[in-house]
Fold:
Amino acid sequence: MTVSILLLLPLLAALALLFIKGDAVKTIALAFSLIELALGVYFITQFQTNISSPQFVFDAAWMPKLGIYFTAAIDGINIIPVILTVGLVPLIIGTTFKREYKNASAFYALIMFMQFGLMLVFTALDGFMFYVGWEAALIPIYFICGMWGGENRVKVTLKFFIYTFAGSLFMLLALIYLYLQTPEHSFDIYKFYALQLNPTQQAWVFAAFLLAFAIKMPIFPLHTWQPDTYTEAPAAGTMLLSGIMLKMGIYGALRWMIPIAPVGFYEWQNNPLWLAIAGILYASIIAFRVKDSKRLIAYSSIAHVGLIAAGLLAWTIQGLQGAMIQMLNHGLEVVGVFFVLDIIERQLKTRDVDQLGGIAKVAPQLSIAFLIIVLGSVGLPLTNGFIGEFLLLNGVYRYDMWMGIVAGLTIILGAVYMLRAYKNIMQGQTNALTATFTDITAGERLILGIICVLIIVIGVYPQPVLHLTESSVTQLMNDVNSKISAALLHKK
Amino acid sequence: MTTLIIIAILPIVLLYIGLYKANKLLLPVTIAGLLVALASAVMQWNNGASAIFSGMMLFDNFSVAFSAIAIVSTLLILMLSKDYFERISDNVAEYIAIMLFSLAGIVVMVSYYNLAMLFVGIEIMSVSLYILAGIDKKNFASNEAALKYFLMGAFSTGFLLFGITLIYGATHSFGLEAIRNWAVQHPRGIDPLFHTGIILIIVGLCFKVGAAPFHFWTPDVYEGSPTLVTAFMSTVVKTAGFAAFLRLFSVSFAPVAEFWMPTLMVITIITLFVGNLTALYQHGFKRMLAFSSISHAGYLLFAIVALSATSGNAVFMYATAYSIASIVAFGVLILVQQQLGSDSFECFNGLHKRNPFLAATLTIAMLSLAGIPLTAGFIGKFFMFSGAMSRFHLWLVIIAVINAIVSIFYYFRVIIAMYFRNAEHEALTVPGYYQFVLGFSALVTLIIGIYPAIIHNLTYNI
Structure:
């Protein structure tokens, strides 16, 4: 069985959903995403962790005269994003069951189409296909945010679109440039890896990729689209954006940017690394002052992703493994947090932290779930956040002590603003508004339960997840390091 | 050659049908005739043609491909003409006939192998268009458009003709190959006749395709002409103009590329910026499309600036994508104009609730014009960018990328209006012909966008 079925199913689901009217569309969308999840689980059980080469390869001619092939596969580098995509989409669809969206069939069709785009990005081993997936994931989320978002949606989503589109066009130029450099004119990623570019060429390729990926993640100072978009988007859109889509940037850097331009990366590594770390501090400080709970999580997301980016760019094995597992953790937690906030907003019609308080008294189950998710995201030991942040900080520290120290502040700052948000929302006395709050229903309990259990299970026993990626990540790192040292030797 | 004969005879038949007032027959006969012409063109594919009539015409794959896309576009546009020309006057047969005469000129323009034939083709096409622009006799804007177009067109023809005569003076021939041979034999130095001739021809052709700074006629003519005529001008005519442009420069002037290339590069850059930046400030959809067509002329010029063996394919893919998407845009525009009485962006507000089909097709068209993947427009842009980069025009491509980003603002304005804003309008009625044309064009846009090999495998070396 090849990975093509994972790509095809969401696409067919999106088309099918367009023709379904009425309330059934939610259930059918959930059913499709669960089938996709089941297939994903099947692939994971068949996945061989001891080899680093691509598995379940699907290869078909797309534009063979131009060396463009439809090549998709799973290996240790993309297995985490693939798990994240197939796993989170059913959860995200589940969170929408209590919401009534106008034109629901289009809404769910767009979600499934977005899953198709994301799977395309994560499994592509062909540059052209990667770019197509990159944009194919952007179009549906643009419409989701624009059609079902908040009041300022038109302006905000256009800014988001222009930002990401601008970044990706420069990535397209880099891909075309690489394509023209390959002797047989091919978009195959392994041909790109094999290219012998000089340091100047590599630096430019690196810069073009970095622009696209830094906007997507986002890394300070290219983050300005993110808080507005997260705030204005409907809850499901925010979850798709923060839970899965921003991992496109991290994954892209790991799969495309660094291995293709290792020397360019090596020479410029410091700059994006400092920017990522500056972004952690900057976002954390802003998060202290934000009253809108959704916006607060948006800033905390910038901080968390900044740390993932820093761990990745530090290019140590700990940092890389930490980035891998933290992609998964962050996706889980952010979906959980946005779901809790959506439950509160749906009932109380407010996101303002100051107007909330005392919800724990009226809704103990919600409050426990929220506590577990918050603790996971601040990285308490025995939650999944701990192992991720520990590895990431370890990786950054090994690269540069001062960077490690500054990045380490994120643990303290994150704990302060997240726990304070928890305190303001959940604890204290109920007020007139929050007294009317009712606790979660069975369906919501199930979703939050799954998230909480995963947070604790991965926190206690992360080894299986780390094991999935280990051999591929080690292999990739050794390849890149040997290219860098060869270039350094050549210089001397 | 059969294609040309069919397309030349068809309008005469139509005029007779008009004479006998059998107006119901007009459209079916036109469609049937054009389909026969299309079939006869496609049968010429890969026939290994050589120049005929003492080297006047050459019906090779290049000419077949561009004739085919011109015929298909005309066919789609004429299908939209049902009940359109009737609103202007009873002389429907004449209108369709003139449009087909223009198409005959276009087939000559994409098949010429001699500068005399180029001139004849351009004149057949242009004179028909001068009339078409002014068919709405009682409309002030239409008259203005016709007059402006005629004056500017005649002026640019003068440049073109002057250029051709200078080239003749230098090379003693109108034949494309003879000119090429002369250029190869005189590789050094600037010949006052020859090189001035090239510049004058560039000026003349840039007028015709609406490239800046020779674009001043475009917005007013496009806006003033009846919308269906505008659709014809901005798709079929522009495609033919570029095919003619490319054939001349790739066959005859390629040996002296380093002479004209910088000039054309400057023109390309100006065209991109003028088209895109001005389109940003338009309040009407039709005028926005006029400026966007200028910017697309800029992208199409890429293929000539970065002249290579794949230029023909690049122009073909880009022009196909652009033509088909534009036909959708103009088709929806005609419906909105007719039924809401205006073409401002506000008229599109909330269209997706009332006419989901129209909104969906127009969205696909706009995404294609903006060059978003999975639509044909992206494939076109991809060929243009990779062609230019393969000739090391990196800065040109970066400028084009900046312009592509700018273009999002105005293409998405109509998408935003249709999907994200609300308004109380009556639902538009969409006639069956329109449904077919819009649905077909949107589908083709997606098919080329998703699986471009379907065309590219045939046209990669035209």
User: Anything to note?
Assistant: The two ends of chain A are 49 Å apart (CA to CA).
